[in-house]
Amino acid sequence: MSKKIIKVLLVDDEDDFVSTLAERLELREYYVKIAKDGESGISKVSDISFDIVILDLMMPG
Question: Domains plus CATH for the chain?
Fold first, then answer.
């Protein structure tokens, strides 16, 4: 039986934080995409069905 790859979308405007988190998740074999703002996040969700979205609610825009 094959392992299911979990797809994660990170939406945050803090470059260092989101890059570090993405790197750590990818080391654990998660499929990770990054969006730097809400609009980009919405665009990515329309393209791919993510299992998890980690979203900064307090970012501008």
Answer: 7-55 (3.40.50.2300)
Task: Give the mean pLDDT of 30-54.
Answer: 94
Q: How many CA atoms lie within 13 A of 26 on its CB side?
A: 11
The DSSP bridge partners found for residue 19 are none
Give tens-digit pLDDT for 1-33: 678 899 999 999 999 999 999 999 999 999 999
Query: Distances in Å between the alpha carbon of 42 and those of 16, 17, 32?
Result: 21, 20, 15
Q: What tokens were used for 2? A: 């094959």
Question: What is the Cα–Cα distance from 25 to 51, expressed in whole angstroms?
Answer: 13
